[in-house]
Predict the 3D structure of the following.
Amino acid sequence: MTFQIKNLNKSFGNKKAVNNISIQLEEGQILGMLGRNGAGKTTTIRMMLELIPKDSGQILWKGKPFSKKNLRIGYLPEERGLYAKMNVLDQIIYFGMLEGMDKKEAKKEALIWLEKLEISYAAKKRTEQLSKGNQQKVQLITALIHDPEFIILDEPFSGLDPVNADMLKSVVKELIAKKKTIIFCSHQMEQVESFCSQICILKDGNLIVSDQLANVKRAYDYRYLELETATAHLKDYLTQKQYDFTQENNRYKLRIPRSEEIYRLIQEFGEKFELQGVSLKEPSLHEIFIERTGGDIIA
Ligand SMILES: Nc1ncnc2c1ncn2[C@@H]1O[C@H](COP(=O)(O)OP(=O)(O)OP(=O)(O)O)[C@@H](O)[C@H]1O
């Protein structure tokens, strides 16, 4: 494995923030790192970036310590860290130079990125004059300007409107196509699901899931059967038979144990009710996350 976290630990006083976690990732893969607030994601990232010392464990890249000395790392932090009074272009150049670029190269790349993210007009503005979403784009550019091999994106979509979110999605897709190795932290499950083939879930500092997304789905004990009908009786029938279901207008979503013979069920419903639509769905990452990390299922 190219990237390895081995038996990583961190406590703050009596609080075990990261408890003996091990994660592996191949070069060119994207890992979705999930967990409720306080699960230990940021602490793990901070240890990776050597911003805080680890208590014990190893973080390796190609067998060597994971460190800026051994590879180019790009980091988009959850809490933004830009200089409010500095103008946008100078700011990006400054961050590029901190990553070892010379000034001319940093300026050239900065202008390309500003154009690409449609904020060239803001190059000479003070950063504080930009909207929150546009400051987020500047922060993204500072994370990517030096063409990092390993990229950590912590809540990259927060504060972006739908148009800017789409722009960022295409940037992430480009990074994936360029075979960058990426850790993607987000509470937005649909995005994690659309980008990440591999996921890990942290809970109270423990790693409770770490696998290919497809395997995680297969290991989930339930599937979902969606039925669409204009017949009002279906609700009574499902209630009477104690099915676990939710209803939205004339659509019903049933949570069915994987062991259940699903085609027999479909036949049963089809014979009893006039169905306009039937579909069988694997659980979404959202459903798996809620079940694994605690909380009620929100269909
Ligand atoms: N510097 C610190 N001092 C004391 N406790 C800390 C410190 N940093 C983190 N913690 C605690 O460690 C635990 C893990 O926090 P962490 O920030 O890693 O969670 P997270 O998964 O990133 O959460 P979020 O999704 O809210 O960003 C929490 O209980 C937090 O309060």
Q: What stands out?
A: The longest helix spans residues 162-177. The chain has a mean pLDDT of 92. Residues 3-71+149-213 form a domain with the Rossmann fold fold (CATH 3.40.50.300).
